[in-house]
Amino acid sequence: MSIPTLNTVRTLQVEVWSDIACPWCYIGKRRFAAALADFPHREHVEVTWKAYELSPHTPVGPGRPEMAALSALKGIPVDRVRQMFVQVTAVAAGEGLAYDFDRALAVNTFAAHRLVHLARTTGGARLAERTLEALFSAHFEHGADLGDDETLVQVVSGAGVDPDAARAALASDAGADAVRADEDEARALGVTGVPFFVVDRRVAVSGAQPADVFTQLLEAGWREANPLQTLATADPDAAACVDDSCAT
């Protein structure tokens, strides 16, 4: 007699709030990807990247040098700002990322987040992830001006987004409500910093954690979503070995 399946595997829903202008978000994205690649149930994991603006009041339009912008914001010399970026640049290099803060430009990221939503709407989660990756790389590694609409179009079209659709979106309010909804959700969850990773709205971690911590996050979420069930007809008194000994 065959034993019926005890339970149906349930897909894990992973939500990640991040900002394209956040250096630790890109590092966290790489580390999470490494953990997910080794996770044995990765085919049952769906990842949704959510928008979060660390500096929503940054002026819309062409960017200005990140070093100068942060120097003015903090009221400290540019050389000191440069020293502040030494650690994060080294950590990024350890993840295969070539940060170049001398070229990076401070920009308002709202429009870029809208294009990530466009990618998800038109091409699904994989296109959204590729689009986010392209935006991160353009900003931190190549000094692209993501405050310029045509530059944004070029970057996301390289990831697979239709350039005409991207231009049309930027010329309208497309995706704006979706970005605001992401940010409202973040506030409701008490998110105050990014990256922020949530599994099934049950288990969460904040920050660019090591890959093994993300593995623990996925494992904890998996146990919550797919608990091991005991066959109802099994005899609880059936003989069994316990620890290092067996009853005789």
Question: How is the topology of this model organized?
Answer:
Elements: E1 12-18, H1 23-38, E2 45-51, E3 64-65, H2 66-74, H3 78-94, E4 105-106, H4 110-140, H5 149-159, H6 163-170, H7 176-189, E5 196-199, E6 203-206, H8 211-225, E7 241-242, E8 245-246
In short:
With 248 residues, the protein is α+β, with helices and mostly antiparallel strands. Helices cover 49% and strands 12% of the residues. The chain has a four-stranded mixed sheet with strand order 2-1-5-6, sandwiched between helices. It has a two-stranded antiparallel ribbon with strand order 3-4. The protein has a two-stranded antiparallel sheet with strand order 7-8.
Please explain how this structure is put together.
- This protein is α+β, with helices and mostly antiparallel strands and 248 residues long.
- The protein has eight helices and eight strands, in the order βαββααβααααββαββ.
- The strands form three sheets. It has a four-stranded mixed beta sheet with strand order 2-1-5-6, with helices on both faces.
- β5 (196-199) and β6 (203-206) form a beta hairpin.
- It is globular and about 70 Å long.
